[in-house]
Amino acid sequence: MGIMGKIRGAGVRRGAVLSVAGLVVAPALVLGTGTAAQAASCTAAKGPYQKQVEKWLKRTADGKQSAADCKAIRSFQVAKGITPAIGYAGPVTWRTMKTITAQQAAGKTPNKAKKCPTNKGRIACVDLTRQLSWIQDGSKLRFGPVPVRTGRNGAETRTGATKIYWRNIDHWSTLYDVRMPYAQFFDGGQAFHSVTKTMYNNPGSAGCVNMRPADAKSYWNLLRNGDDVFVYGRKPGT
C-alpha cells in the first residue's frame, strides 16, 4: 500500500472463493430463533475441522455440531475478524487457531531457529509462517514478538532482506484511499503500518505488514531509515 510503489494486484485463490461460496449457499439447518438475520448468523452444518476446532476451544471433541458448538465457534470468528462468521469449522478458522498456537509457542524466543539474521545489529524480523514480527539487536530481543497481518494470496508480502527507506507517521495511500498510520516502507510499496482490523482478519493485507496501533507505534519509535528488515517463510493459505 502507499504511493512509494504499486503492490501487486489483490487476489484470492479460486478454490478458496468457491469454498466460501459453498458455505453461503449450502443447505443447512439454522440453529436458534429470532429474526431472519439472527437465524442466519449460525449454522448447523458440521465443518471439516469440527473435532479439531472443538478441541482447541476446549469443548467436547465429538465432531458433531451443536447449538453450543456453533455459538462458541462463531464467537471466536467474530473476535478474530474471520468471515463468514457463521460458526462453521472450516479451513480458515482451523488455520487461524494453528497460527495462534504457533505464536503462543514462540514466547520470548521467536528467533530460536536463527532464521532471522543476528549479525545485522538492529533488525525487524517478519515470520510469515507464524504471522509474527519482532525487533532484535543482534541476537537480543528488543521488542515483541507481536502478531501481524501480511499479504493475502496473490498479493503476498515479499520475502528477503531489505531496509527501511521512507517513513511517514500519518501516511495517506492514494492507491487505496486509506490512512496508513506509522508507515515505514521497506520494499517498494510494502510497509509496516497500523490498522484497526484484527490481525487474523481474512484474507489478509494487500502486501503490507499490518500491525495493531500500539505495536506500530513502538516500531515507529524503535526503527529508523536504514534499519534492516528481514522477511521469511510463507503465510498459511497462500
TrEMBL record:
Keywords: Cell shape, Cell wall biogenesis/degradation, Peptidoglycan synthesis, Signal, Transferase. InterPro entries: LD-transpeptidase, LD_TPept_cat_dom, Transpep_catalytic_dom. It comes from the Bacteria. One of its GO terms (cellular component) is extracellular region. One of its GO terms (biological process) is cell wall organization. Residues 121-232 form the L,D-TPase catalytic domain. One of its GO terms (molecular function) is transferase activity. Pathway: Cell wall biogenesis; peptidoglycan biosynthesis. The active site is at H193, C208. Residues 1-39 form the signal peptide. This is Murein L,D-transpeptidase. It comes from Streptomyces sp. gb1(2016). The lineage of its organism: Bacteria, Bacillati, Actinomycetota, Actinomycetes, Kitasatosporales.
